[in-house]
Amino acid sequence: MNLNLTALDAAIFGIYILGVIGLGIYASRKGQQTKRDYFLAGDKLPWWMIGGSIIAANISSHHLVGAMGVAYSRGFVAIAMEWGAILMGFNALLWIFLPFYIRNGFYTVPEFLEKRYGTAARTTYATLILLTYILVEISAVLYLGALSLHSLLGISVMTSVVILAVLTGVYTIAGGLRAVIWTEMLQLVVLVMGGIALTIATVTAAGGIGAVLETSKSWDLILPADDPDFPWTMYLGGVLCISVFYCATNQFIVQRVLAAKNEWHARMGVVFGDYLKFLVPIIITVPALVAPKLFPDLEKPDLLFPTLVEKLLPSGLVGLVMAGLIAAVMSHLSGAINSCTTILTVDIYLPYFKKQATEQQAVRFGRMAGAVIIVVGILCTALFLEHSDKPIFLYLMNAYGLFTPGIAAMFLLGILWKRTTHAGALAAGILTIPMSVAMEIIFPAMPFFNRTGIVFWTCMIVCVLVSLATKPKPAAALEGLIWNRASLSLPEDQRQYQRGIRNPAFWWAIITAAVLFFYIRYA
């Protein structure tokens, strides 16, 4: 497959690339050279930028390419992980963790662990999360974006990887989170426009809305326990821990919340993100549901996206959709790089190597770390070439399962149970990788969601047992770190913001009801 772009397509694509780089460089010149400005955009983000950037960073090539491939081969259930995040992960962020992150003025999520437990817990999390970002976020996004460019334009995969990494790295390293957020808002608009164009073209070719409604007969969000990929038992632990980790304890997502103007903007931003999280997966999934009617025998499901672009889109729209794909790749990649540099600087460089570093030295190290992360991500892309025989989206979920059970246990028990100790948290964090690997070796046929769920609950039990056998922190040291009913309310000085329809709970109830309707209707 080799797509020959028309002059119009090339112009649209080129204008978008130049626009993103130009906007990123412009944003990088707006801020001051301080840690707070470089890593948290100066704590000035309004709710709409928070929600938009969360979803722009979240949705990437592993959705446009990977999730679309899963929906092609498995159907509507591919949307379950995305909507499940609204019910689990984002709810955990909104109603449990967010107040503690904001009120303590943290730069990074690991800082919460240090204040709640101690230095070793912070370091354990930082190590696990950096491995996750490099092996799952950065490398996978580069691979899938490059795979599509290779399929459509004939550019070699590794050449595409390097081009994408360098283009994104230029403004991300120069401008920090401010440049990331500004470019992500442009990229979200282009991504949604491109997705809608592809959806309309595919549905029209398949016979219109009637073709979509016809597929609704097999829309299932709850599948039998013996399903190899999406058994209903996944909701008992696997989806829960991955969702809580990704949405509520993940620097990649939470960093945008930490940069909010205040707690009301943070809460409204998460709720706005819920609405986008509901809409964007529909745009991605619907074309895949009707695609088997048009292309019933694709060799690889992950090739559905480039196939639809090549076969169905007219001149002009090809350039827009290609820009949407690159928007998804660059927004996700820039967010992951920025999160890595923040953790490396705030959680490793400053505490262990340069405690007295100036603001300029911290920013300089962050930029150097960003360059190194990009190089390592490019090298790790080779890992995905060996897993191209199955949908990469499923591989990614499996990879998350290796790292996330212990992290989710550390955070959930740490914030909900005051008796949790540092030793218990470390036991859960250290256990997660070896036990996950052992489960995969011993039970290779078991669905990875089930394996992940077993590891998660084992980590929870081990954390409880070790905590009961060790001495807890005194109550005074836990002040402001344990959840209680007061955490549901805004601080007294911000409650005037949430009167009437400005109350985040009002909009949260609407989107939650919509998601629950689909789960009940298509159970």
Automatic annotation (TrEMBL):
Belongs to the sodium:solute symporter (SSF) (TC 2.A.21) family. It comes from Chitinophaga lutea. This is Sodium transporter. One of its GO terms (molecular function) is D-glucose:sodium symporter activity. GO terms for cellular component: plasma membrane. Gene3D superfamilies: Sodium/glucose cotransporter (1.20.1730.10). Coiled coil: none annotated. It holds the Pfam family SSF. NCBIfam families: sss (TIGR00813). The chain crosses the membrane at residues 6-26, 47-71, 83-102, 123-146, 152-174, 186-212, 232-254, 275-295, 315-344, 365-385, 397-417, 424-446, 452-470, 505-522. It is found in: Membrane. It is a multi-pass membrane protein. InterPro entries: Na/Glc_symporter_sf, Na/solute_symporter. Its main location: membrane. Keywords: Membrane, Transmembrane, Transmembrane helix. The keyword Transmembrane helix applies.
